From TrEMBL, chain A:
Keywords tagged on the record: Lyase, Membrane, Transmembrane, Transmembrane helix
Cited Gene3D superfamilies: Hotdog Thioesterase
Domain of life of the source: Bacteria
This protein's name: Hydroxymyristoyl-ACP dehydratase
Organism the protein comes from: Flavobacterium silvaticum
Taxonomy of the source species: Bacteria, Pseudomonadati, Bacteroidota, Flavobacteriia, Flavobacteriales
InterPro entries: FabA_FabZ, HotDog_dom_sf
Membrane-traversing stretches: 52-75
A Gene Ontology molecular function term of the record: lyase activity
UniProtKB/TrEMBL annotation, chain B:
Entry protein name: Acyl carrier protein
Alphabetized InterPro entries for the sequence: ACP-like_sf
Protein's organism: Flavobacterium silvaticum
SUPFAM superfamilies: ACP-like
Length: 147, 84
């Protein structure tokens, strides 16, 4: 499944889509990238006069590539397209800040995908390969979200 | 492995995911993982995977769907162990 097809099936859109490209994907791992545009609205407030990408947005970017996009690839065409994604847990360490205009690369490796739960080791890096964040993320692919 | 040993092992598997400690302390066969222990569906998957490892069994999708109470878990563990 090619990059554009996976991204078109993601349930996000601007201003909350944090995936530009899926560079490679197979049954065990996925690699994707995103460029944090200087004009993203949250930079006005995080921080005042000192724009740095919020950690929660980095985690969101890692989850969109490492769980949602990866999950779309893993379920292929076999499953109902009306599935929903639920982010269920994260444990993360931040090692380096991301400034406006930077491009990040996210690699996610499957720990397991069973009974609809995808658990992965996810790493975000800069273009030269310096680690920004490493995390263990989990999400559920489900037919309906219980309130 | 006796029934008591199976329950003790199951309790040790479930413990890290329990949100309602009071319900856990009074756990019996009727205890519901979701309603009583307030475990979410993502952690039910972890419980199933830990149960597979602890008892050397494989839990299929159909069993997973009905593994919502201690009683159901015990019957699935016994059934799968008997099949080995």
């Amino acid at each position: 499944m090619e990059s554009a097809k996976i991204i078109s099936r993601l349930p996000y859109s601007e201003p909350f889509l944090f995936v530009d490209e899926i560079i490679s994907v197979d049954e065990n791992s996925i690699l994707g990238s995103f460029r944090f545009d200087e004009n993203l609205d949250f930079y006005r407030g995080h921080f005042r006069n000192n724009p740095i990408t919020p950690g929660v947005i980095l985690i969101e970017c890692m989850a969109q590539i490492g769980l949602a996009a990866f999950g779309i690839y893993l379920i292929k065409d076999e499953t109902d397209r009306n599935v929903q994604f639920v982010f269920t847990s994260s444990e993360a360490e931040f090692l380096k800040p991301v400034f406006p205009g930077e491009t990040v690369f996210v690699t996610s490796r499957k720990i397991y995908f069973r009974f609809g739960k995808l658990k992965c080791e996810v790493i975000m890096e800069t273009e030269p390969g310096e680690k920004i964040c490493k995390a263990t993320l989990s999400g559920m692919i489900t037919n309906q979200i219980v309130p | 492995m006796t029934q008591t040993e199976i329950i003790d092992t199951l309790k040790s598997i479930v413990k890290p995911y329990v949100q309602n400690q009071q319900a856990f302390e009074t756990l019996d066969e009727k205890t519901d993982f979701v309603k009583d222990l307030q475990i979410n569906s993502a952690n039910l998957v972890d419980i199933a995977l830990d149960t597979e490892d602890a008892f050397g069994i494989e839990i299929d999708n159909e069993s997973m769907q009905r593994m919502l109470t201690v009683e159901a878990a015990l019957s699935i563990i016994e059934e799968k162990r008997a099949q080995k």
